Amino acid sequence: MKLLLITFTLLFLLSGCSVNITKDNFIYQDEKVEVQLDLAAISAKITNDADLTTVSTVSLVTDAGETLKGVQLLHEKARVNIVLFGGSGMKISQSAAILNNFASIPANVMWFDYRGVGVSERKGELNLEDILQDSLQVFDLAKRSLPTNIPMVVHGISMGSIVGSALANERTLDGLVLDGAISSVPELVENTVPAWSKIFSTVTVSPELAQLNNIDFIKQYKNPLLFLAGTEDTITPIAFSQALFDISGSEVKTLATISESKHGMSMKSAAAIKAYTVFIDQITGSGVP
């Protein structure tokens, strides 16, 4: 979400009155999408159980006729399937090292760039509803393609936490992981905008973004739920995850605080891998007395 922060800061520096946050300055888009992923470079980042993992590209054509592209990590001893939704501006070509962390769980992972980002194309105007619909098609592909004898989990990072929660109310998951979770877009904006700038400017959130409320999604979701919250995360602080944890109706839920972890960096920590291990045990019943 650092690109979001840069956008907000520039808006406030250039404005002396009011700023309206819309999808166009909330969701990162590339000026030109990449031609293809460098599989050799991605594979080189997988050092955990490298001899047991295989990395390949995946793609799908959406109902809107746009081609989304991504990457798939398969681990011979995977305990869980994970469908990953990253943060705004988190594209595979620059963030593929996170796959190495998932390999240490170990897990199978399917991860697509959002439309208009990385290697995924965008033909028309960006629409939030289209992104949410894309997520359903990505999940359905993962459900068809990945092994069926292990749990299916959705992992959403930052903006992806909203995408994942919305998906979880449309599809049946074995578990949901919210990493650096956003409680609501208005609250995120309020937390992100520097206090000093509010003296000179006012900020509003467009109705389209304002309706993206993770609290409503989490109230409806009842299956196993894991929050990963970094103690050094100033963008989506622990309080955001705590609020969602408190209102969740899930009988199996955990809030794991990751020491010294900044925004979007939780999976680099051994504590996050341990939390995942316990979570998988809870889902499969192997960790329940």
Automatic annotation (TrEMBL):
InterPro entries: AB_hydrolase_fold, Hydrolase_4
Signal peptide (from-to): 1-20
Domain Serine aminopeptidase S33: 77-209
Spans through the membrane: none
Record key words, sorted: Signal
The name this protein goes by in its record: Serine aminopeptidase S33 domain-containing protein
Superkingdom in the source lineage: Bacteria
Upper lineage: Bacteria, Pseudomonadati, Pseudomonadota, Gammaproteobacteria, Alteromonadales
A Pfam family assignment: Hydrolase_4
